[in-house]
């Protein structure tokens, strides 16, 4: 008996499942998150929905003839977003804001090139607050550094604005819950700008999955593996004493998958997360920090004794319906770039990075409406090129058919940024639910803190809170919303007319001649 107890205690300590306090006691971490032990699992509290709030699942607002936008954060990502919006009919760039005034003013040139009116300029540490108070802005588009995503979004929502936030859109559970509550309270959209959901392979594969090509999806993988060695010195620094820049500093101070959404977003859509399934439990592990510590030491010329984030982080997630997701994050080691996107189904397989392809046997390929040209085709290898091209052609996503060619011309990570922005505007102009809601934002962004809780306590299981507060199974299956062809045509004509008048106004303002 003594041997058994000793062994059990040793395993408990090894796995980190022994709480130092009774299981009934609620604990609070340094971010203010309340949690408790329950049978060796960390359970994070899901707060009750405050009185007066309602779910925003499927939230649709009145149609907007034109979408008036204020952009905040015009460093690495913001200017590209401003330029993309100059190509989208029925939009107006009303205001530009950045901590550094020069960056905001530089974006006026993008408006001049498009013969569009000048935008109002805001700058300084709190410049966004004045922008958010304007009554002529429908959408605040946030592309600032990570630490400012939440305060800007909070200010915008409190001022009755819809918000679209670059990733990661919230940095901890407290911020996730505040955005959920504000979106519900104000009845405004709060969208995560996860562009990887709009890349060609991801969209076509999602369409295949929704049409049953792979059978039932039971496992998925996603990743963000991107060595940032060439980029660390380009991230904004606040003054001469800032030796690291905001992104390296954040990785030094925080543990977990701090940039999970590129990998998690597309697979969450394929698995119908909070639309028939939900992420239930995770276990996270990381390597020690070697490269990260060395980067800090080289820039500060002093020893780094506590670099919180590991060089490589792996998170395993199990859903309520028994599916498994694996997500990886590594911005430190010299690996080839990879945004791994992989679906394992009962009848087929899809993979992106390092080899892009699909695996189906001849029977399933025929059942999917594509006649195999190879007699001995099996699922032991990827489809031959001709069969893969035929499969992709048959299941090309309708959104790619609508925006794909122009997106390749406009650009933005190969065009997926433009598709994302175009869909956002399309949904607002047609009064439709957005492709990604505030619950997507919270679920995808919470991976960082939940993973930190797991790793800081011996890599134990951690339960996900339910951001939908019990409504994750109300909607059956993830779907993009579309207007009828007639309604779409009316909205498009109004948008086109609005932009034509705006260009006339802009040409006069800039002293330009418009070539019709």
UniProtKB/TrEMBL annotation:
Residues 203-355 form the Glycosyl hydrolase 109 C-terminal domain. Residues 1-21 form the signal peptide. This is Alpha-N-acetylgalactosaminidase. Its cofactor is NAD(+). Belongs to the Gfo/Idh/MocA family. Glycosyl hydrolase 109 subfamily. Residues 67-191 form the Gfo/Idh/MocA-like oxidoreductase N-terminal domain. SUPFAM superfamilies: Glyceraldehyde-3-phosphate dehydrogenase-like, C-terminal domain, NAD(P)-binding Rossmann-fold domains. Keywords: Glycosidase, Hydrolase, NAD, Signal. GO terms for molecular function: alpha-N-acetylgalactosaminidase activity; nucleotide binding. It is an enzyme of class 3 (hydrolase). PANTHER family: BCDNA.GH03377, GLYCOSYL HYDROLASE FAMILY 109 PROTEIN. The keyword Signal applies. Glycosidase. The keyword RNA-binding does not apply. Its EC number is 3.2.1.49.
